[in-house]
Structure formats: C-alpha cells, structure tokens
Amino acid sequence: MEPTDLHPTDLQLARQALRDDSAFEALVRRHAAGVHRLAAGMVGPGAADDVVQEVFIAVHRGLKGFRGEAAFSTWLHRITLNACHRAIKGKGHPTVSLSDTAEPTAPHDPVRAGEQADLRARLAQALHTLPQDQREAVSLRELSGLDYAEIAAITGAELGTVKSRINRGRAALRDHLTKVGIVP
After folding, report:
1. CB of 132 closer than 8 Å to CB of 53
2. Which CATH number do you get for residue 162?
3. pLDDT of 97-142, one tens digit each?
4. Which range marks the domain in which residue 11 is found?
5. 51-61 in b/e burial notation, b at 16+ Cβ within 10 A?
6. For the chain, what percent of residues have pLDDT higher than 70?
C-alpha cells in the first residue's frame, strides 16, 4: 500500500469525495477545527458553529468545480471568509457573550476560567474593530497559522499588502487592548 493511501492528500480526498461520502467526512474531520477557529475569530464563538456548517455545505456543493489549481486549504479558507462575511452582514455586528465561551477541562479553576473567557471575549471584540481586510489577514495568520504567501493567495492581495495589513492590524489591536486595560 502506498503512503498516500494511508494518508491521502486533500486533493485526493476532494476527488474521491465526489463519489465517496467517507472521503468527504475525512476532509471535514481534517479541517473542521481550523475552520471553526477562523470563524470564531471573525464572527465570534456564538456564530462560528453556523458558519462551519455553511462552509462544509458549500464545500460539498462546490467539489465538482474544484479543479485543484490552488491548494484545497486555500479554497477552503476563501469559502470560510466568504461565509464569515455573509454572517456579519446578515446579523449586523456580532456580539460575544461570556456564555458562548467553552469552559476549560479539569482541573477547573473558576477564577481562571472566568478571566480566560473575559480575555477571549475582549480579543474577539478587538478583532471586530479592525477593518475587514486587516481582520481577515490577522485572523488567517494568527488563528489559522497561515504564512504570508498563503494569505496572499486566499485574499488575492500582493504579499507586501498582506504584510502591511497584518502589521497595521496587530498595531491597532495592541492600541485597542491597551486602551481597555489589557497589556498585550
């Protein structure tokens, strides 16, 4: 058995998913956490589950048109950003509630859990103060861990523009967080 049979690439799974639901399920398992992380950063944790569902419905419907010219992850991130933008436009400015934040696993420290939930909420709110292009770039870099070239491919922006957006976005986040009493 070939190593690629044991660990198929995204492109192999995408092609196989056209005729095999288990291949699509493997793609979802492989990418769901990253899509959720990006969505939570863009629309807030409360709306992220709906965005993730919308993303994978769109991916399933769009697999026939995926030619593999770009990386699957690039295509998936673009679909995720589009779904996030629709969620933001459809519901107005998202709000982040402490009740939307999952509690940490044991050992449970209620004080620390509350502090972490508050910090996550403030970070999410701070992200939403950024212009859309900076929020996208910072989220793709910090939440999805993508490199600058991947972000450029997803957003269609030049590499220098991506770097500039990330730098400006980080500076604006730092200023915003400092103003609300959080030392980054």
Report:
1. no
2. 1.10.10.10
3. 334 444 444 455 666 667 777 777 778 788 888 999 999 999 999 8
4. 1-95
5. bbebbbeebee
6. 83
